[in-house]
Amino acid sequence: MQVRSAVIPAAGRGTRFLPATKAVPKELFPIGDQPALQIVIDEALGAGIDHIVVVSSRDKPAIADYFERDDELIGLLDESGKTQLAERLRSIGTDWRATVVYQDEPRGLGHAVGCAREAVGDEPFAVLLPDELMGSSALLAQMNGVCASTGGSVVAAINVPRDEVGSYGVIDPAGALNADGVIAVRDLVEKPDPADAPSNFILTGRYVLTADAWTEIAALKPGRGGELQLTDALRAQAARAPFHAVVSEVSRHDTGNPLGFLTASIELGLVNPDLRQPLRAFLDQLKR
Ligand code: UTP
Hints:
The protein is an alpha/beta fold. It has one domain (5-287): Alpha-Beta Complex (Spore Coat Polysaccharide Biosynthesis Protein SpsA, Chain A). The chain contains 11 helices and 13 strands. The strands form 3 sheets. It has a 9-stranded mixed beta sheet with strand order 5-4-1-6-11-8-12-10-9. A two-stranded antiparallel ribbon has the order 2-3. Strand 2 and strand 3 (34-35) form a beta hairpin. Helix 3 (71-79) runs antiparallel to helix 4. Uridine 5'-triphosphate binds at residues 9-16, 27, 55, 103, 106-109, 111-112, 129-131, 256.
């Protein structure tokens, strides 16, 4: 079954970007000429998804505003000949469906995803963390295919040096990596001591989950940091059902912290046809 809905959790406090996030959600910070949220939405649409469910917070009204149609502004852009920009605004929430749901307070990623249950319904769904950018839809599309062929949930992973695994969720493999980069998963270990880590494959923020994940999420008890952890629900699934990871070679960007945000802006600026040349010239000038 084609995955139709993507859940994008965006209700966190964004403390690493305070004081900016006091007024502006980090999910709307622009990377080049696009909000990070839109880049992640485009990734989902490119993988055949047509319903975007954003989990927001009442303290972040700008997120829901982003999906509100503004006919007056579109009209002004049309009148002044900025038709491409007008078209871009018009497409938000019309070529695809957007639903905004609310998390009452940031009680963890598992809780945030659970808030989308009614909007998604009982079918497989994707989860995309908006502070990780993947550059294309290829990984998510492959994950959708693996979910359909195995009938189980699928997570995205990347291979990192052993000394870096201690800050992440790590995959405990149940077999070897196949030629397509797919590996069966026995369990997930949160922030292990690198010496005891079961692999070098860390979770990165893309998931394709079967509908029974809703039951595991609803049953979550507070875990690490007192929060309801999505990883705990995935562990329960992996213990009783087929569960796989797709290990990706994509150059992923973590924009959830100031340095990652800055480097992502530069790297993605260097592949943007409008920005590439002047940005390259500026960087060359800095080197001198
Ligand atoms: P992060 O931990 O990166 O975001 O969660 P954060 O909590 O906003 O950031 P810091 O750590 O305080 O700087 C990953 C994604 O999950 C969302 C966040 O908005 C972010 O997009 N999230 C996290 C929720 O929607 N609800 C939560 O309870 C926690």
